Amino acid sequence: MKQLKILFFAFVICNSTLAQEDYNYSDELLTSTFKAYHQVDFEMSYSMIPFVKKRFLEHLKDSTSFTNPYDSLSKHISIQYSLDSIVKTYTWEERDTGCCHTSVIYAQYKTNDESIKYIDLKDVDDGGQSIFIVGVHNIEINNKPHYLILGWGTCCGGQHYSTAKVYEIVNGELQKSDTAFFEQDDIFTGANRGQEIKIKYDTDKKLLSYFSYPEDEETGFYKSEQTLTQWKLTKQGFKKEK
């Protein structure tokens, strides 16, 4: 009987310890923060956003957040990973009453010395668009690792747009590459709300593709003619297919 009691208490202690280890404090705290942010009215959300960003960045500063799956948080914000586990992105929408959809985008990345850093992608992006990340792909250009980040956005006017930008880690810093596309710094393609863009990257074929539409200068919208545009990844970068 005594041995059974000892085994019982050992079982309880073991389960208690495992429960504590399984409890993801960072995930739960950030999840509750974003839940509250989305539940309050717009006036209150304006006051909350500085606090939400500050709390979020406090967790990004902890290197263990890089490997944290954030199972609960990922239901409230978008979290994307590169297949080589070097780049991880976070995207969410700032609540406001305007017709634009303003995004917050951060990236964490691992440097050659295994340290974990983070950055506001808008600080290294000179495009000025507010995008929501829809894909992160690790690619190779000039025998060096690069990262293709696909985005989507919309801002009033009955239109939306997609973007494709390439980043690389140079001297321990993630920065935008301006040589990844032979003819331009990055890809920006727009369409009317009812038109599909469907930007995507085929890792097997190494092909970036999307639908593009000519602009109508008189109306400021896009014409109906649809063109499938493709860029092939070469050793030196993306080259537009004819």
What does this structure look like?
Keywords: Signal. Residues 1-19 form the signal peptide. The strands form three sheets. Strands 5, 6, 7, 8 and 9 form a five-stranded antiparallel beta sheet that branches. 24% of the residues lie in helices and 36% in strands. The chain is globular and about 55 Å long. It has four helices and 13 strands. The chain is of the alpha+beta class and 242 residues long. Helix 2 runs antiparallel to helix 3 (42-60).
Q: Give the overall form.
A: globular
* End-to-end gap: 82 Å
Number of strands: 13
- Topology as a string of helices (H) and strands (E): HHHEEEEHEEEEEEEEE
Topology:
Layout: H1 2-22, H2 25-39, H3 42-60, E1 78-81, E2 87-94, E3 102-110, E4 116-120, H4 121-124, E5 132-141, E6 144-154, E7 159-170, E8 173-176, E9 187-192, E10 200-202, E11 207-212, E12 227-233, E13 238-240
Antiparallel strand pairs: 1-2, 2-3, 3-4, 5-6, 6-7, 7-8, 7-9, 10-11, 11-12, 12-13
Give structural attributes.
242 residues; disordered N terminus; four-stranded antiparallel β-sheet; globular; alpha+beta; 13 strands; 4 helices; single chain
In short:
The chain is of the alpha+beta class and about 240 residues long. It contains four helices and 13 strands.
